[in-house]
Structures are given as structure tokens and as C-alpha cells.
Amino acid sequence: MSEQKQQVLPFYVVCDESYSMVDEIDNLNNYLSELHEAIGADPVVSDKTRFCVIGFSDTAEVLLPLSELSEVEQIAGLTAKQSTNYDAAFQLLRDTIERDVAMLKGDGHQVYRPAVFFLSDGQPNNDHWVGSYNRLTDAAWKPHPNIVAFGISQEADADTIQKVATFKAFMVNPGVSPTTALHEFAKALTKSIVKSGTALAQDGQVTLQVPEKVEGFTELKVDEV
Amino acid sequence: MSGHVRHANLDSPASGGTGTPAPRSRRTWGDQVDNPRYVASIGKPGSAAQATWRLGTEPAIPDTIADIGAVGQVAVCCAATRGPSHRFYGANRDDAAAVVNIANRFVGAAVADGVGSVERSGEVAKAAVASVLHHLHTLLRVEAERHQVNPESPFQNPQLVDAVTRAIRRADAALKQQFSSSPPATTLTVAALCAQPGVNGAYPYVMGRVGDSSAFRSCEGDLVEIRKELVDGGSGIESEIHSTRTVAIPGPPGLEIAVADGQLTCGELLLLTTDGLGNPLQLEEVRRALTEWWAVPPDLTSFLTQVQFRRKSYDDDRSAVAMWTPPALTGPGSRQPSWTPDEARLPSARPDRLLTDEQPLPDAMVDAGREGTLEVRVAAVRGHLHRRQAVTRCETAGAVRVGDQRVVAAVAAGVAVDESREGGHGYALREALAKAQELPAVDPVPGKAEPLADIILHVENQLRHTDIRATPWETAVLLVLVDTKPINGTYHVSCARVGPVTLDVLDTSTGVLQPAPWSQSVPMTASLESLDATEPVPIYRHSFMIRPGDALLLASDGVGLRHPHLRQQMGDYLAGNHRGRDDVPGPGEWLDRLCMFGEDGAHGQRDRAAVLIWADPKVAP
What we know:
The complex is a heterodimer of chains A (225) and B (621).
Chain A: E1 7-16, H1 25-40, H2 43-48, E2 49-56, E3 60-67, H3 86-106, E4 110-111, E5 115-120, H4 129-137, E6 146-151, H5 158-164, E7 168-172, H6 178-198, E8 217-220
Parallel strand pairs in A: 1-2, 1-4, 1-5, 5-6, 6-7
Antiparallel strand pairs in A: 2-3, 7-8
Chain B: E1 64-71, E2 74-81, H1 84-89, E3 95-102, E4 106-114, H2 121-149, H3 157-178, E5 186-194, E6 203-210, E7 214-219, E8 222-225, E9 230-232, E10 238-239, E11 257-264, E12 269-273, H4 275-278, H5 284-293, H6 300-307, E13 318-324, E14 364-371, E15 374-381, H7 384-389, E16 395-402, E17 406-413, H8 425-437, H9 450-465, E18 476-483, E19 491-498, E20 501-507, E21 512-515, E22 524-525, E23 538-546, E24 551-556, H10 564-574, H11 587-596, E25 608-615
Antiparallel strand pairs in B: 1-2, 1-14, 2-13, 3-4, 4-5, 5-6, 6-11, 7-8, 7-12, 9-10, 9-11, 12-13, 14-15, 15-25, 16-17, 17-18, 18-19, 19-23, 20-21, 20-24, 22-23, 24-25
Helix pairs in contact in B: 2-3, 8-9
């Protein structure tokens, strides 16, 4: 078993597929394809990272199970659906991370704290997500992820975006088109994966690196826990 | 929604967002994975270790340096190598390693890991290693002389501890001075090992470190990390390990140094490593493999292959210094080392030489990369004669990229070393490459190689004014500049040389290695105020074209290509007759080949250095 032992940093992209995203879903799929191309072509990064896509609207679904991007043909698959159910998203995310980390560790790998990139364009349809969110970010749960949250439309509630993030939060600037915002999000995610995959902190650990600035977005202060 | 498995794209170099990716290929790059002499894996190799390398940008820090030789009774192998990550992105090596022979009485060894991928972190690591060994040498030389005068004088371990900690503190101070404004930082581990056994037959050692580069020793068939350490704080009072520890130097006042001492008995190994090797050594499987490989000292090529074993996700630079005491018994059935102390000795370095521009060159160096449509291989190695005589290598080579547009490569060779003079070849190589990197990036005009000739003149002038005290014109230099992509189907090559070096062109359509057309060049008389030369020595220059599929071979005189039969032998090898395939040799194979080239002839004992630049025939112009 220890033959497998590698250093692994898992990335989860959690994407809003609610009806208000209908005009942008194709673009988002394209940008995720570009990300796939960039990461998949970089052997240094793809050796050390794994990637998973979860889409959510009124329910949540794993669209791409945690995989090495160099071994995947394509990762498109988001479709616009109905409303915005954060509760379903956080529940599925927690269960998925739990299962994935257990599997990686069972294979003998050294797993670093998962990184979540959360993308939403609207307000959640209710407040029922707080419980599942707290379970996801509970410090006592070992694999609790670092969450970077992006609000990608003017209608997104900055407050909510801030609350969801644990690491960094970004809110789209006024006048920036959703298309541009999505593209910049995908580029930031790619850069983050590449930098995290290649950076070595002083103690040799793999750490999450998120770009200081994301074009078209303003960084929000994230609540200290 | 997960898709089908497809092969990883292994030949697409990143270049920081600029540059054209290489064409996709199913082959792995570099040394053949099925040849265990050049490629070793422990577990899954992963994609990064098989991906294309790029050249670095720093003439003073090639991809790999290695040293091999005995000090007294102790056998030493030393290496510092770039990891798959830096190789893929074309970043420079952050690690450094070196060893010194202190009057045949002690081995001084050091490894350093530049912290973070900050600019100059490789430079500070290299400076830290040079500085600490310089000071260690100075401090221990006294002890060595005392022992020579009175071999029975009892050896005191505290003197060794004192020397090691003082050497680290002096290195810390030296770095602060050298890198004054916002210095990059480095870890540092240094060890002093007695090269002669004490009265009890044991070999005492002391290890001191700042930061987390590791040290190991063999113990009951395993490699055990040296952890039982005392912390030497600024007050000199030893105390237990605390959780706060200085992480790197230059450090704050009151530098805390972790110190450990012990002794090796017969047939044991002391190993210093940086994290790139220290991290995977936490895994039992890796320790088992290295314990098996390093039961006895390996030869140079094997040691480099073993240090660079492939394992998925472990892509950091790696450095290692391995020191073996002789075994008690060498009966039948016991594994024999690949070389004996008589065959290779580390030169006894003069301490002042350790800090000047002309630090003695290690036994070997390697560099390689794909730039545009060019494949580049660089190697230089000490010959058997100088290994036996404990003389430093006097021929060297290097290549760096200049953005994405050009490669500049050079070969330099000095006269044989004696006590009063050392060749300026190391300095000449670094300075020639650095100056060539600064040339403006304009399209070269055929016939205009003057800038390169000017650089050679500058270098030869400088040799008179530096510490090196080399007589000018005793250092041969060859400097070549090539575009990385063809223009109208051909590549411009500009070159200049002084002294005995060779530049050959391999025509792959005929398989023949031909000397480059220097006879058509214009010799330029040097206007150098020379005190020693009786007449001016010409600097030759030339520009010409090569086609896709052609190769350039820069070689020092030690390679022997002035001899027709050796030129033919090299041409046969490059054309694939003896390698069984027609593509470029990997970096490990190139070094190995250079080591063995012409071994059975009179020429075979010399140092040699060579650069191969191959224009890929498979890429459409």
C-alpha cells in the first residue's frame, strides 16, 4: 500500500446551476474545459492535484468524481436547472470529501486540506444551509476544507458570499459581464491549482495559494472563525 | 460524467505563459525508462518525472553537479540536482551541495535548500554551502596539522562541535553581508567526519544544522534519521530541543543550531540530504531501496540515477552527500564498491579558493533541456588521471536559455592545476554565458559574430584582473549562440573561440561529423596588454546555418575530437549506430557516454566537457 504514497491536494469546484445561470452555463462549461486543458497538460501539477466538479440547483450532483485531470477526457456537464439550494450543495460536498479523503488515505496517500472553489450567482432560496455548512466547516472534522467563494452576479448577496468563504471571498465588480466574470474565475482557479501544486512552503508542505487579485472581482474580508 | 483515460501529454513545456509548446508525443523525454542505469523508480514514477526539461537561466547554477572521491579512508558521493518541477518550468536549482577534503583528515560536507521559489534562493544556498565549508576548513586545518605533527594526540569531539557551530555562525554573518537587502533564505546542514579511524577504530562525526534539511546514518540495515540533537543557542549552553527553531539563514540574532555527534564504525554510511530527498525518505519503501543501493559506494552515473529516483508527486530539487567508512572485511560474497580510494580522490581544497570566483569545480556537471525545436545536452566530467591525482576538473561546459528565442552554450578549459595557479575556466564559462545572455535580441545577421568574439576578449582580459591569476590565453573558450526555431528552414549559428576547443556539425543525412568551417572565419588579433604572451593569439569567429536534423557538438580538447578516429567514433554514436535508436541521448546517458568516451586510448584519461545541440528533424520548419 505504501507503494502508492504520494502527496495529493484535492480541489472541488462547486457550481451554481440555477435558472438564472442559463445564459452563462455554456460559457462556464467552455472555461472549465480550458482549465482542464491547462492543468491536464501540466504534469507537475496534475501529478499532485485531483479535481472534482459538483453542480447544484434545487439538488446537488457530482458531475466529475475526484480525478487526475490528465486522465480525464472532458469535464463539461453543467446544465441550467431550477433554484438555488445551498443546503443540498454543502451536504453533498461534505459527504463527497469524506468519502474521497478516506479513499485517498486508504490508498496510502498523504492528503492535504481540500480546497473548495464555490461559485454562485444568486441568493440561496432559504437559510436552511447554515446547519450543513457548519458540519462542512467544523474544525473538529479533520478534512474540513478551505473555501474560496465567488459571487458572480450583482444579485449575489455579498454577505452570504463572505459567510460561505473560509479562506478568501470575491465579489464581481459592477459593470463586469457574467461571461468575463466566469472566465476570470476559471483563470483564478487554474492559477491557484498550479501555484498550490508547485509551491513549497518552508516546511515542505503543500499549501493553498489563491491569487492576490482576480480581475473583475473585489476581495471581501472573510470572517475569522 | 468522467471521461475515458487518455495518455498524459508529456511533451508540452510550460514557459510561464510565453513560448510555443513542443509538439505532443507519446514518448517520454530524456533517458529511456527501461534502462535501469539511467532511470530508477520507486513506486509509480508519475508524469512530471518523465516530462520535458527546460534549460535554466543562471550560468553559475547548472541542473546537476556531482562530486566523487575519497578523503583518507572515507568514500564520498555528492550531488545536487533539480527536481521535475523546476526542470519542467525551466526554473533554476534551489538546492546546493558540496564536499571538501580537509588535509585528508576530515571530510567537510554541506547541503542547503533555498527557501521558497524566490529569485536568488539558489544563489544564497550555493553561497551558504561555500561559506560554511570555507570556515570549517579554516577551523579544522589547525586540528589536522596538529595531528600530522603528533598522530597520537587524543582527538576531542568538542573541538569538532565547536568548529561546526562556529562555521555556521560565520556563514550566517557572511550571507548577511553578501545579500544585504531583503535576503532570500536557505536551510543549511553541515557535517564534519573524521577521515581516519580513531584508536577505537571508529570515525567520529559532528552534524550541525539550521532548518529542516535532514541527516541520516545507517543503522542495522536501515537508514535512520539523526534526531537526537541538542540545540546550541547563542549562549553556547546546550539545551533540549524546543519547538521554536531557527528555520533558515541568514537568521535572527541568537541563531539556534541543532547539533548532533556520533561515530561511524566500519562499513557505515552518513548521509546529508535536503527535503527533496528527506521527505520521501520518511517512507519505508524508499529507505529500503536506498539502503540497498548505497550499501557500498556506487559509481558516479549510478549515484546520480539513484538520487533522482522517480516517484509520483515528489518533484522537489534533491541534494545528497553520502559518506562511507571502509568495511571491516572484504571477503568473497561481500559487495564490492564500484571504485576504490586509489581511483578517485577529492582534491585537498585550499580554503581561500572556496570563496573566490574560482571555487574548485566538482567532479561532474550535467544540464539539458528542450528549447523551441532544439534539444540541448551538456556534460563535463573529471578524467581518470585527475581523479587519481586528486586534481580538480579543468574542462567545463554550460548552456542557458535566453528567453524563448535563443540558446547560448559554451565550453571552457584551463591548464592543469598546480599550487600557485588554477585555470580560469570556471570563471570564463560563467562570464561568457552571462555576457552572451545580455546581448540584444535582434535577428543575427550572417557573418556577424563579433559580439561573441568581443565577449571572449573581455573574458580573457578579466582573467588578468581577478584573483585567479591565470595567464590569459591559457584558458580556451568556445561560445555559441543558436536560435531555438528555424527561420526559412534553417537555424542561424554564431560562434567564437580561442584556444584548443572543437566545434563540429553532424550531418544526419550522411552521419558524418565535420569540423565547423573555422577556416572561413576572420581571425581577430587581440588587442590585449599582455605581459606574458609573446605574440597576440587569434580569436576566431564565424556564422553559419544548420538544418533541421543537424547537430552541433562543442567539445573541449580532452574529448579528443581532433583525432580522426575519435571523431568518427563520436559521429557513429550520435548517428545512432551504437545506441540502437536515432533520437537524442538522455542527460544521464550523455554524461555516462562522455565518461567512457575513448577510455581505452591514450586520450581516455583526460577531463572532458561537451555540449550537444540537436535541431529536431521531426518538427516542420
